[in-house]
Amino acid sequence: MFALGFFLLAGLLCQSLGQYDYYEEYYFPSAPMEAVSSPICAQECECPLHFPTAMYCNERNLKFIPIVPSGIKYLYLQNNLIEEIKTGVFDNATDLRWLVLDNNNITSNKIQAGTIEKLSKLEKLLFSNNKLTKPPGPLSKSLDELKLIGNQLSSFPANTLSGMENLTTIQLSQNKLTTESITGAFKGLKSLVLLDVSENKLKKLPSGVPPSLLMLYADNNDIDSIPNGYLAKLPVLQYLRVSHNKLVDSGIPAGVFNVSSLLELDLSFNKLKSIPEINESLEHLYLQVNEINKFDLTNICKFSSPVNYSRLKTLRLDGNNITHSSMPDDTANCLRQASEIIFD
Which residues contact 309 (CB under 8 A, 6 or more apart)? Predict the structure, then answer.
């Protein structure tokens, strides 16, 4: 299991390296080519003898979930034609830890009551690219990862994740969620480090986000402002992505991004006319394709000296109304660590 856990951790870490350098899908190991499968295995699937707690049912054109035998901890059902979760399929799967249902045709009203609720030891529920209109549940309190990318979610009741103190990762991108539909949904999640609500219909950043958060992705929404003091409530936040929104200068309170924990800030593809005030500890700032018409160095460095300078390594300003000649004389001193400054 070390190898599988390593790849999942690597997938999470890759999401925080660079502007767009992260994988959309996790690494799912294929079933080894073995002639003999474990005798407890469902006949439609494979259970390798050297890994008998895993059942591989992926990519088999299945229209139903086979009865899962006892002892199975890792169930792979991605890339099938499954439309429903019937009563009884998980009755014996009391030890199930991972349930992978990505890329099927399951709708919310075809998940029979009590089926997923039985999985009290479930740690990872990967349910992307189906036809869900609401999150499945009730869910196990032991869950540490919930992935519902590319569904049709329009509601997310506030009590859906109640009491889930182990939950570290929530991915809800590519749905139909509004600001109102996720109000209160993330309160009390003491271990949450990654929240992805990109490609929805949000007009504001999510409220009630726990202070444990390291990564918040809200690209491709309708966000036009950042609440005053929003980042101050997230003392360890390192990566904030709000590209492809409707941000304007009047919606950016003074100093709202001036927090020492932040390493990457992506505000590209918005309607900003000036460089916002940032902290000197920021390493990557993406402002391409805005309406910026001046290079205000004081928003990057209050003043420059041998010990006071910006830690920026990347600054993108291409697609704006400024050029390299717009930089003030003291820019080189302020941005002495920058390896990439792009104007066009």
Answer: 280, 301, 333, 334, 335, 336, 337
Residue 23 has pLDDT above 70, yes or no: no
CA atoms within 13 A on the CB side of 73: 9
Question: Percent of the chain scored above 90 by pLDDT?
Answer: 84
Whether the per-residue pLDDT at 260 is higher than 60: the answer is yes
pLDDT of the residue at 148: 98
Query: Token pair for residue 134?
Result: 């609401």
Q: Tally Cβ neighbours within 10 Å of residue 50.
A: 8
d(CA 338, CA 311): 7
Q: Which amino acid is at 159?
A: N
Amino acid letter for position 318: D
Residue 253, preceding bond cis, omega within 30 degrees?
no
Does the pLDDT of residue 19 top 80, yes or no?
A: no
Q: Find out whether 305 and 330 touch, Cβ atoms under 8 Å.
A: no
* 334-to-124, 139, 294 alpha-carbon distances in Å: 45, 50, 16
Taking 70 as the threshold, does the pLDDT of residue 14 lie above it? Answer: no
> Distance (Å, rounded) from C-alpha 311 to C-alpha 334?
9
Cβ-in-10-Å burial (0-12, 13-18, 19+) of 332 comes to exposed
What pLDDT is stored for residue 31 in this prediction? 54
Q: What is the mean pLDDT of the chain?
A: 91
Three-state DSSP state, 286: strand
> Could you give the count of Cα atoms lying within 13 Å of 179 in the half-sphere of its Cβ?
11
Tell me the C-alpha distance between 344 and 328, whole Å: 18
Helix, strand, coil tally for the chain in percent (to 5): 10, 15, 75
pLDDT over 70 at 169, yes or no: yes
Q: Which residues contact 17 (CB under 8 A, 6 or more apart)?
A: none
Query: Do you know the residue count of the chain?
Result: 344
Which of 182, 172, 130, 169 is closest to 148 using CA atoms?
172
CA angle, corner 110, sides to 106 and 113, nearest 5?
A: 125
**Look-up of token digits 């100093």:** 255
pLDDT at 30 over 80: no
- For 128, 175, 243, 287, the CA distances from 322, given in Å and listed in that order, are 41, 36, 19, 12
